[in-house]
Design goal:
The chain contains 5 helices and 12 strands. The chain is an alpha+beta fold. The strands form 2 sheets. Strands 1, 3, 6, 8, 9, 10, 11 and 12 form an 8-stranded antiparallel sheet that branches. A 4-stranded antiparallel sheet has the order 5-4-2-7, with no helix packed on it.
C-alpha cells in the first residue's frame, strides 16, 4: 500500500503541472507580433542637362564606387553654343588687347608728322605775313595782300593747334571708359563660356555615393529630360527596419530601446535599436468609432537600425518583432 502511494504521488504531480500549463497557455495573453520591412538609402543619379542618352555604363546589380562614371548624355545644342561663345570670347579678347595696348605706333608717328607739318606751315605763314606787312607799310603792296597773309597765318596757327591735340590724343591712348567696357565684355564672354563648359561636363554623370545599382530607368538613345533620374543606387550599408505601430503599442518601443528581430529571409536574429518615431498622415476628421466607448487609433512609423552590419541584408526583406504582453 505504501509502495502504491509512492508511485501515485509523482504521477499526480505531473498531472497537476500539465493541467496548470494548459490553463496558463489558454488564459494568458499571447505575444504580439509586428511585421516590418527592411529599407535602405537610395540615391537618384540625374543630369541637369537635357539631351539624348548616349550610353549607360552600368547594369542592375553592379556595385559602384563614388565618382564612378555611370552614363553619358549627348547634347549637340550645347556643343554648338560653346563654339559660338568661344568665337565671341576670341573677339572680345582681341578688342580688349587692342584697347589695353593703346594707339598703334604707326598712328602716333603719323600724328607727329602732321603736327610737324603744321608747325612748318605756321612758321612760313608768320614769316610771309611779317614781310608783306613791311611792304604794306612802305606802300609797295596793297592792304588786301596784307589781309590775305594775316588770314593764312591764323589758319596755319589753328591747324598747328589741332595737330598738337591729335598727337596728344594718340600718345595718351583710349579713355578709361573704353578700357572698362572692353574688360566688361571680356568678363561676360568668359563667364558664358565657363557656364556652358560646366553644363557640358554635367553630361557625364558620376555616382555621388557608392552603392548597388538597383535600377536603370532609361536605355541608350532615349531622350533625357532635365533632372530626370537615369540610375538608382542603393546603399545597403545604410539599411534599417521600418514598422507601422499602432499608438497603443507605442509605449513598448521607445527610442533607444534594443530588440532582437527575426529576419526570415536570412533565418537569423539580429539586434536592432529604435532610432526614430514619427507619426503617419493625419486623419481628415477625428471622431470616435463608437461614441463614448472608444477612439480612433493613429499609426506611427518606427525606425530601427542594426547595431552591426548584417551580411546579405537587402531592401524589401520582412522583419518580425515580438512584443511580450
Amino acid at each position: 500500500m505504501k509502495r502504491q502511494h509512492l508511485i501515485l504521488l509523482p504521477v499526480l504531480a505531473l498531472i497537476v503541472v500539465a493541467v496548470s500549463v494548459v490553463f496558463w497557455r489558454a488564459y494568458s495573453e499571447p505575444p504580439i507580433q509586428l511585421q516590418g520591412q527592411i529599407e535602405a538609402r537610395q540615391y537618384m543619379v540625374s543630369s541637369k542637362v537635357p539631351g539624348r542618352l548616349a550610353e549607360v555604363l552600368v547594369r542592375r546589380g553592379d556595385v559602384v564606387e563614388a565618382d564612378e562614371l555611370l552614363f553619358r548624355i549627348h547634347s549637340p545644342e550645347l556643343e554648338a553654343r560653346l563654339t559660338q561663345i568661344e568665337a565671341l570670347d576670341t573677339i572680345s579678347r582681341s578688342l580688349a588687347q587692342a584697347v589695353e595696348g593703346g594707339t598703334r605706333e604707326e598712328k602716333i608717328a603719323a600724328a607727329r608728322s602732321e603736327f610737324e607739318k603744321a608747325q612748318t606751315a605756321e612758321a612760313l605763314a608768320r614769316t610771309t605775313h611779317d614781310r608783306i606787312r613791311s611792304l604794306a607799310d612802305q606802300g609797295v603792296v596793297a592792304r588786301q595782300r596784307l589781309d590775305e597773309a594775316y588770314t593764312f597765318w591764323q589758319i596755319a596757327l589753328k591747324t598747328r593747334a589741332t595737330a598738337a591735340e591729335i598727337l596728344k590724343l594718340a600718345e595718351t591712348g583710349p579713355r578709361e571708359e573704353a578700357r572698362t567696357a572692353s574688360r566688361a565684355g571680356e568678363a561676360a564672354t568668359t563667364s558664358l563660356r565657363d557656364e556652358v563648359a560646366e553644363l557640358l561636363d554635367d553630361t557625364m554623370a558620376y555616382a555621388h555615393h557608392g552603392g548597388v545599382v538597383s535600377n536603370v530607368l532609361l536605355s541608350p538613345g532615349e531622350l533625357v529630360p532635365q533632372g530626370l533620374p537615369v540610375v538608382m543606387l542603393t546603399d545597403l550599408n545604410d539599411a534599417w527596419a521600418l514598422f507601422n505601430v499602432r499608438e497603443d503599442f507605442l509605449s513598448r518601443v521607445p527610442e533607444g530601446t534594443e530588440f532582437d528581430l527575426h529576419i526570415p529571409a536570412l533565418d537569423k536574429q539580429v539586434r536592432f535599436r529604435v532610432s526614430h518615431v514619427a507619426v503617419l498622415g493625419d486623419f481628415a476628421t477625428w471622431r470616435a468609432t463608437v461614441p463614448g466607448r472608444g477612439f480612433d487609433m493613429r499609426t506611427f512609423e518606427v525606425e530601427m537600425h542594426p547595431l552591426e552590419a548584417v551580411p546579405g541584408l537587402r531592401a524589401g526583406m520582412s522583419v518580425l518583432l515580438n512584443l511580450q504582453p
